[in-house]
Amino acid sequence: MKHLKFIINNFEAFFAAPLMVVMSLMVSIQVLCRFVLHVNTPWAEELLRNCFIWNIMLGSSIAIKQKAHIGVNFIVDRLPRFPRILVETVSVLAIFFICGLMIYYSWEVLIMQKGAGQFMPALGLPIFYSTLALPVGFFLIALRSLALLVTSWRTYLSQKKEG
Q1: What domain range includes position 69?
Q2: What is the number of domains present in the chain?
Q3: What does pTM read for this prediction?
């Protein structure tokens, strides 16, 4: 059970960390090939771009979990407990709405790309692999936001019981 909780808590990092390693290697290979060997490597650029797209979405989910996104907390932090939890609830509902829209429309694009049989020119992989980062990422963002909201409400309710 302890291992499962660890995996769930760090799910995105299991994918984001290796992608960062791949991205670092690809940038190094690009610099070496372009400036030392004078060889163009379009496959490395394409792989780097796809890793970057996935890392943005995974990193956004990690940032939600760690409350690292930019927020205007100056006023909210000065509110009493109940209005503060209401503001948090409204903001998470707004995140849910935006994530829902993004999941829906990015899924539509994904299906269209898959149906059209589009491929990445240099890697030869189906292009929907990079587009898949959007619905997956926004789904993870929505899940992490829900988890934060549940934690906030639990904290609020436990503090209310204590007095």
Answers
A1: 2-162
A2: 1
A3: 0.88
